[in-house]
Amino acid sequence: MLRPLQRRKIRRRLAPYLLALPALALLGLFAAGLVSGLMQSFGYIPAFGLTRFTLDYYRGVFADAQLAASVKLSLWISVSSTLISVVLGTLLCTALVRLRKVRGFTLQTVRLPIQVPHTVVALFTLCLFSQSGLLSRILAQAGLLTSQNQFPNLVFGSSGSGILLAYVWKETPFVAYFVLALMQSVSQHLDEAAATLGASPLHTFFSVTLPLSMPAILRAGLMIFAFSFGAYELPFLLGATSPKALPVQAYIEYIDPDLRHRPYAMALNGIILLLTLLLAAAFFLVTEHTAKKLGGDGHAT
Amino acid sequence: MKHSAAKKQRLPALLLAAILLMGALTGCRSASAGGSTSSPASAETAVRGFDPSSTDWDAIVKAARGTTVTFYGWGGDADRNEYLNTTVAQALKAQYDITLEVVGMDIDQILSQLSGEKQAGTESGSIDMIWINGENFRSARENGLLYGPFTQSLPSYQQWVDMKDTENQQDFGYPIEGYEAPYGKAQMVLIKDSARTPETPKNAQELLEFVKQYPGQVTYPAPPDFTGSAFVRNIVYELCGDTQFQNMAADKETLRAAVAPAMEYLRQLNPYLWNQGKTFPATSGEVETMFLDGELALNMSYSPFTVSTGIEKGTYPATAETFVLDNGTIGNTNYIAIAYNSPNKAGAMAAINYILSEDGQLSQYRALRTIPVLSPKLLEQSQLDAFHAVDIGQGVLTQEELLEHRLPEMPSALVPLLEEIWLEEVVGK
Amino acid sequence: MRRKQSRFSRLILAAAAATILFPLALIALWSVSSVWEWPGVLPGGFSLRGYETVFADYQQMPRLLLFSAELSLAVAALSTLVGLMTARAIALYRFPGRKLLLFGTMLPILVPSTVFGMGAHVLLIRAGLAGTLRGVILMQTVCALPYTVNILTDLTSSVGDGLEEQAQVLGCPPWRAFWAVSLPELLPGILSAMSMAYIISYSQYFLTLLIGGGRVRTLSTVMVPFLTGGDRTVAATYAVTFLFSVLAMYLVFEGLIRLMARGKGSEPWNWN
């Protein structure tokens, strides 16, 4: 019979794997879904009589003149909305921490956009910023407009500003909420110490609070970037006819009544997947590197 | 102090456990509920040994009794949803003891699901009836997603449908061969508000003048939206005639050459359109919203009686008017088909038989003003009178006027090609 | 100095609150308007047509809302449970593959749900899970997993296992040690993870429709065609209904958290 200490040692070694088992099962399902999608992108769909692996569909995607424009648009939307949301979100988080409003009505209000689905955000973006939206009406009442056409084409325009505004509205509170716990923990433990040493609050923020909260900020940034890059709803509802954002193009191919467009859709998905994974890996390495520089795990101590 | 803290935590912990338990129970309970409703096929074949290809109508009705039939189709029309869930559901229950389950889903997702099931070899799925037509029908047929032929077994079809009518033989130029039954007729119409725009453009030339007079206030949904695509096809018919397309080969370059005058015309329209034709609304819903907002001067719809139902609901102004082009607008029929792996083919056939019957078509006309698919030649006078007695409301054209100005659809193989050509040649040009 | 700071912070919060609440108020206004033409800044007329349509008898809205809530609760419970176990493994143990696991759990957020949904659909059909509630719960749990793991990992490493070890040294069996010592500390975070997973599941449209095949009817699947349709009043009504039902559940979660916070007094880190 094993002595208690030995038993505990074995249990200790097995424990993490056992604990991780359900997650691994779920991730297995996820991976299987990805693999199935990739197989379809290589043209392997037996039910449609396609049994040859081929790169034809990828070639078709790259041959499309619109592809570069789509990728550029998707990148532009994701990068700008992420940068703006991260800055504003961190600012919002700072305000929350400073005023110690970490629960209750204020926090619930800030959290509200997380609970609002993207389709509803598209709806009120139209109500506000379309050429017949509230802003346009206010300007008309003020005598600055006489017809709806004079209002700039924020929504549906090729700049994608409508999409940008919608994403920022939804993602800024997400960043704030995500970083809140860490920033609060840092603030709680170190603000007083810094003040005692004579640092001004501003100085404390930039040299202590912000750097120590960086891991959470970066993680939030990565999450919202990846999401805005791959999601189709907002660009579909608020975007221009051409160029279409990458996931919108994939979605349109997917719902094409001619089911032989399916592998084409999967090829587009494959490209989205590749770009997202590359970015994720890059960011992950960066986050870990930053964490190592700061010492510790990069998680809340 | 630790004691009271522990006590205060017991209540919330218990509540949490209660929530978790409820969640877990849902999973188990509804999983079994979901499981039980997914095996009516085995029930059907085990109990009745029914052969859906039999033409013995009584056997079909008997097999359908007491079963549930699902009807999958676009769910974005609140009026139609209400009609199906109340009038039709009640009638089916009364007449055939069938429970109707209406499921709102876009046709592309329906076909996607069926093709997924085909890929996985599922023999008994969850979809019975499908609201379908056009390119989607063609695609479904080519991929073997539909059950049929079945219309020959339906008494309503035998009695009241004119089988010589092209629209009952071909769907967008593709042979039907009994794989779908007519459901309702639709026709493209244009809508304007006579209080804001007294002019009515009845042909391409007048339309061009119209957009010049009201710059920035006209647009159309971007293909592949159904209505937008129909509008483009209509313009093509205006400028290039319709007969040359009926037997055209599905070759993009041939089509491009044939529609060149129409593309040129659309490019001429662009500078005067909403957003100078650089971008177009993605859906017909958006165009309608903008029209009702007063942002657009022209709306278009496949439902010719949209204005009268709209005025009654209060969403449309009383001065709204429907009109068609002098040369005609595109009309089509939409149909109901049965999924290849429908678990309740008998029930589906019985339900379709009702919808196709004089009762069903009359109730649909009354509730939704959908043009009936029954042939007036085959109806008795009293039945015809019943149809004419229905008040079609304000601001719309009569059935006769619509049918006199009706053009056939383009073959479905050409439609996606035309949509691509439009995207390449018109947007932002 | 502090007052100036807190004034600046107050300004930011006020601006944020206004930006968040105003569009939602606008939607609420649209839901009760009968006609609202340009350039009117206020509706031209009011009516309850939207609510009459949405809550019409045949829609069975109460049943739909209850079912959607139950589905999302199941997903929340499941993903939080898995998240808790995974977080414990990542936070408290050092083992080969740890970093990989951490990265792996982030993937469902980074990869769009449409991408792996379209691929997984065929597999689920073969497994007989397509069109079933179980299949939908499973897929939504995968989507919610990154959020719960993320929230709970930080928390678990914060709470640590020091107290548990002490309890075990004093003779407490390991399960009991976890239950009595660590779990109470983790409860607020667990609730936070659950409420996050709940909203992820409740808002899910594409996956529910794809995997559920129309047989799993939630508020989201019913309302999206209307949100993109032409009737803005009905669309706004659905949006308002959705928001209220989500807020109702949030109040439940928030209430539980408050009860727990009162029971513990103030802690160094305050998980809301």
Describe the overall structure.
- The complex is a heterotrimer of chains A (301), B (429) and C (272).
- Chain A is built from eleven helices and no strands.
- Chain A has 301 residues and is mainly alpha-helical.
- Chain A has a single domain, classed as Orthogonal Bundle (MetI-like fold), CATH 1.10.3720.
- In chain A, helix 3 packs parallel to helix 7 (161-196).
- The longest helix of chain A has 38 residues, at 4-41.
- Chain A starts with a helix and ends in a 7-residue tail after the last helix.
- By secondary structure, chain B is an alpha/beta fold.
- Chain B is built from 18 helices and twelve strands.
- Chain B has helices at 2-36, 40-48, 57-64, 78-96, 107-120, 134-142, 155-160, 166-169, 204-213, 226-240, 252-269, 284-293, 306-313, 345-356, 358-368, 381-389, 399-404, 414-425, and strands at 68-73, 99-104, 129-132, 146-147, 170-171, 174-175, 180-187, 189-193, 298-301, 320-323, 329-339, 406-407.
- In chain B, helix 4 crosses helix 14 (345-356), helix 4 packs antiparallel against helix 15 and helix 11 crosses helix 18.
- Chain C has a single domain, classed as Orthogonal Bundle (MetI-like fold), CATH 1.10.3720.10.
- Chain C has helices spanning 2-31, 49-54, 61-92, 98-110, 113-126, 133-159, 162-169, 174-203, 206-212, 219-227, 232-264; strands at 33-35, 45-46.
- Chain C is globular, with a radius of gyration of 22 Å.
- Classes of the chains: A mainly alpha (301), B alpha/beta (429), C mainly alpha (272).
- Chains A and C meet through helix 1, helix 3, helix 4, helix 5 and helix 6 of A and helix 1, helix 3, helix 4, helix 5 and helix 6 of C.
